[in-house]
């Protein structure tokens, strides 16, 4: 079984959660039905939390957010089509007060920073759902931020390092599919020398010596967004 209910159904209840029906209304967004089923099971036994809708894509999440008006949205990052952070940005455009908790297997610092800039209130690794899901929902419902210690350490370890620019990420993304500098230049309609300059800066920023290692590090840190 993927999840278990928290031991106390009323622990952490506050006036803040009593917004509409006396319960924290939750929208769950994940493209894996088994994950959604596990989350539904975990929330089922909580007297102060109600699962009001489930979505399997970013587009569906936006529509259901407008329809169900949840207090909390649980958002997977690795969605097909529109990714989770794009969905967060759209939902935040619908309601700047939306409380969104990211659910992901990825803790790369670049991905975390992108999510925080998009306006998420919590960032929870999927392997922590069994122990931390309920408490994180209640914490965010109280208006607090919820970032795990492991993620905070990951952010701190990269503090002061330069981030890749949007163009550098675009170049490295094309490189990750085996494209040569010449082909990347053709795709982006720039000179091959420009691509070489971008690659030089990418290697310097990621502190690596070759293209393959650059792609690996960029994936680990979340600059390239093939995430679960």
Structural account:
The protein is of the alpha/beta class. The protein folds into 2 domains: 15-157, Response regulator (Rossmann fold); 166-221, Arc Repressor Mutant, subunit A (Orthogonal Bundle), CATH 1.10.10.10. It has 10 helices and 6 strands; from the N terminus they run E-H-E-H-E-H-E-H-E-H-E-H-H-H-H-H. The protein has helices spanning 33-44, 58-68, 84-94, 109-118, 129-141, 149-157, 166-175, 181-188, 192-206, 211-221; strands at 24-29, 49-55, 72-76, 99-104, 122-125, 146-147. The protein has a 6-stranded parallel sheet, sandwiched between helices. Helix 8 (181-188) packs across helix 9. 37% of the residues are buried.
Question: Key terms for this structure?
Answer:
single chain, 228 residues, alpha/beta, Rossmann fold, Arc Repressor Mutant, subunit A, 6-stranded parallel beta sheet, disordered N terminus
Radius of gyration: 20 Å
- What value does the average pLDDT take? 87
CATH superfamily of the largest domain: Response regulator
The share of residues in extended strands comes to 5-15%
Provide a compact summary of the structure.
The protein has helices spanning 33-44, 58-68, 84-94, 109-118, 129-141, 149-157, 166-175, 181-188, 192-206, 211-221; strands spanning 24-29, 49-55, 72-76, 99-104, 122-125, 146-147. It has 228 residues and is α/β, with parallel strands linked by helices.
Topology:
Layout: E1 24-29, H1 33-44, E2 49-55, H2 58-68, E3 72-76, H3 84-94, E4 99-104, H4 109-118, E5 122-125, H5 129-141, E6 146-147, H6 149-157, H7 166-175, H8 181-188, H9 192-206, H10 211-221
Parallel strand pairs: 1-2, 1-3, 3-4, 4-5, 5-6
Helix pairs in contact: 2-3, 7-9, 8-9, 9-10
């Amino acid at each position: 079984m993927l999840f278990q209910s928290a031991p106390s159904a009323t622990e952490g209840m506050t006036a803040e959660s009593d917004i509409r029906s006396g319960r924290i209304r939750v929208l769950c967004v994940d493209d894996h039905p088994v994950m959604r089923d596990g989350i539904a099971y975990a929330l089922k036994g909580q007297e102060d939390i109600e699962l009001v809708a489930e979505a399997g894509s970013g587009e569906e999440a936006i529509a259901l957010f407008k329809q169900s008006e949840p207090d909390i949205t649980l958002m997977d990052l690795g969605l097909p089509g529109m990714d989770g952070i794009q969905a967060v940005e759209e939902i935040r455009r619908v309601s700047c007060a939306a409380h969104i908790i990211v659910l992901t297997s990825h803790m790369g610092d670049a991905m975390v920073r992108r999510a925080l800039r998009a306006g998420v209130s919590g960032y929870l690794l999927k392997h922590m759902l069994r122990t931390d899901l309920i408490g994180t929902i209640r914490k965010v419902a109280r208006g607090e931020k919820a970032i795990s210690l492991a993620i905070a350490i990951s952010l701190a370890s990269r503090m002061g390092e330069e981030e890749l620019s949007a163009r550098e990420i675009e170049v490295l993304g094309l490189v990750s599919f085996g494209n040569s500098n010449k082909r990347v230049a053709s795709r982006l309609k720039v000179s091959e020398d420009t691509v070489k300059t971008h690659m030089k800066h990418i290697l310097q920023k990621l502190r690596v010596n070759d293209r393959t290692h650059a792609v690996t590090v960029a994936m680990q840190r979340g600059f390239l967004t093939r995430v679960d």
